[in-house]
Design brief:
heterodimer; A: mainly beta; seven-stranded mixed sheet; four-stranded antiparallel sheet; 11 strands; B: mainly beta; six-stranded mixed sheet; five-stranded antiparallel sheet
């Protein structure tokens, strides 16, 4: 079945450590997105990519980095510069012609 | 004004009740909108798309009011399984490839 796979489901980060969240899709979607969800704040866009080898900053890109070397993959790195990284991270993809996103099941990141 | 705004609730309703949520948006150029359902600690799942003609799917009806710049979601004959957070989403800055989400409305259907 086609879909989006995020891993790991839970991730613990130590202070000052970089961590990378994986997002893979086999839907053949061109566009991919990373959102962060905090309680009471809804989903906020971190980065998005419309095509391979191209990506754009969203509303809260500081402290994050991405790459889009393959159509299927859009990993997100949470760097040590992100001072409050504890959140639920959601990856999504979108077909060029269909409306709406398909979301992965999310990664819950906690700083320890 | 926020780009997309929702009443966070919670909406506590008895089984069988009809409940309606509204979501206001600020970009008058937006053409399409979306309702997502999110269960606790899960990802959002697309419930309905909303265009100028509205949309109906079983017990769920979504409408668009361009004059007042809001979309609505009506749930008839509420079930316990409808308990969830309902998120609305609109294109960001008019571009259809990016969505901005409201903070969600929590619905709790009581037995």
């Amino acid at each position: 079945d086609g879909g989006i796979t995020q891993s790991p489901k839970y991730l613990f980060r130590k202070e000052g450590q970089n961590v990378t969240l994986s997002c893979e899709q086999n839907l053949n979607h061109d566009a991919m997105y990373w959102y962060r969800q905090d309680p009471g704040q809804g989903l906020r866009l971190i980065y998005y990519s419309q095509i391979v080898n191209d990506f754009q900053k969203g509303d809260i890109a500081e402290g994050y980095s991405v790459s889009r070397e393959k159509k299927e993959s859009f990993p997100l790195t949470v760097t040590s510069a992100q001072k409050n990284p504890t959140a639920f991270y959601l990856c999504a993809s979108k077909d060029t012609f269909l409306e709406g996103y398909t979301f992965g099941s999310g990664t819950r990141l906690t700083v320890v | 004004r926020k780009e997309v705004e929702q009443d966070p609730g919670p909406f506590n309703v008895p089984e069988g009740a009809t409940v309606a949520f509204n979501c206001t948006y600020s970009n008058s150029a937006s053409q399409s909108f979306f309702w997502y359902r999110q269960d606790c600690r899960k990802e959002p799942k697309l419930l309905m798309s909303v265009y100028s003609s509205g949309n109906e799917d079983g017990r769920f009806t979504a409408q668009l009011n361009r004059a007042s710049q809001y979309i609505s979601l009506l749930i008839r004959d509420s079930k316990l399984s409808d308990s969830a957070t309902y998120l609305c989403a609109a294109p960001w800055g008019g571009a259809t490839n990016k969505l901005i989400f409201g903070t969600g409305t929590l619905l709790a259907v009581q037995p």
